[in-house]
Amino acid sequence: MDVDALAEAVRGGERAALARAITLVESTRADHRDQAQRLLLKLTPDKHSSATAAVSNRVGITGVPGVGKSTFIDALGMDLIGKGHRVAVLAVDPSSTRTGGSILGDKTRMARLSVERNAYIRPSPTAGTLGGVAKATRETIVLLEAAGYDVILVETVGVGQSEVTVADMVDVFCFLTLARTGDQLQGIKKGVLELADLVAVNKADGKHEMEAKSAARELAGALRLIHPHDALWRPPVLTMSGLEGIGLDKFWDTVLEHRRVLTDAGEFDEKRRRQQIDWTWTMVHDQLLRRLADNPAVKAIRAQVEKQVRDGTLTAALAAEELLRAFDGR
Ligand code: GDP
C-alpha cells in the first residue's frame, strides 16, 4: 500500500480514499497497524505551521435509544452544511462488538445527511473491545479532519463506559434527554450529568413543550448542585426539537460559546493536549495488560499461582509479585 498516495487522496477529500483509510485504522492486523500509524503521522497537523489553531469542533452526543439522537443529528447536520460546514458523524457503540451490528451510525437513521456530499457517516467499528472502538474512533477523527470535515459529531448510547470514552475524545459533551421530572430524574445516570457540558431536553414540541420546559428547570437545579458557582463553565439546560428543528441554532451557539469560554481561559487547546496525553497512557495500559496476558512465563505459572491463592497458601500481594516477576523475566 502506498501510504503517501493515500494521505494525499484523503487530504484531497476523496471519499473512497477516506473509506479505505478508516478501514485501515480500524484493522487489527499488525501490518495494517503499521501503515495506519504512518498514515496518521502524515495527516496530523504540523504543530509548527502557522495554521495550528484547531478549526474543527468535536461534539459528543449521548442519550438513550429513542431520545431522538439520529433525528437531531440529521437536522443539525443539515443546518450546519447550509452554513458552509462539512459534517462527519461517528458512533461509539460497545455493543456492536458483541452483536456484530450497530444501532448507531446506521445511515438509514439519517436520511438527509446520508446523501449529502458534505457529510460523512461512519458506523461504529464492529471488532474489538470498547478500547479498540475508542482507538479506531480517535484515529478516524484525525483522518476526517485532514479530509476537511470541520464538524465531528460522535454519538453514543450510555452503555458501560462508553460515555466517559466519548467525553474524553471531544471538545464538548452533550446529553440529550426526554422531559423527566421529580422521581423520574433519579432514572438519569448520575455520572452522565457530571460529564455533560450541555444538556438538552429533546422532543420539546407540540403538547410536550411545557413539560419539557419544566423538566429543563428541574435539571438545571440538579446541575447547579454538581458544578460550583465559580466553575469556568456551568452546563446550561436547553429545550429543543430535532423533529421540528426548534432550538438547533441555540444548541450550536452554545457549543460555540463553550468553545469561546474555554479558549479565553486558555483551556481549549489545553483540553485537547490533555486528552492526547491521557490517551497515550490509556494505550500503554491496554498494551501492557495484553502483553501480560500473552506472556509465556506468566501463562506458565498462572494456574498454579491462582490455586495457591485459593488455597490460602499464598497471599494476593505475594501472588501479584510473583506474576510480575515472571513478566519481568526475573
Ligand atoms: P435515537 O434512537 O436516539 O436515534 O432516536 P430517533 O432519532 O431514531 O427517534 C426515535 C423516535 O422519536 C422516532 O420515532 C422519531 O420520529 C421520534 N422523534 C425524534 N425526535 C423527535 C422530536 O424532536 N420530537 C418528537 N415529537 N419526536 C421525535
Automatic annotation (TrEMBL):
One of its GO terms (molecular function) is hydrolase activity. Pfam families: MeaB. Keywords: Hydrolase. InterPro entries: GTPase_ArgK (IPR005129). Its EC number is 3.6.5.-. It is an enzyme of class 3 (hydrolase). PANTHER family: METHYLMALONIC ACIDURIA TYPE A PROTEIN, MITOCHONDRIAL (PTHR23408:SF3), METHYLMALONYL-COA MUTASE (PTHR23408). This is Methylmalonyl Co-A mutase-associated GTPase MeaB. It comes from Nocardia iowensis.
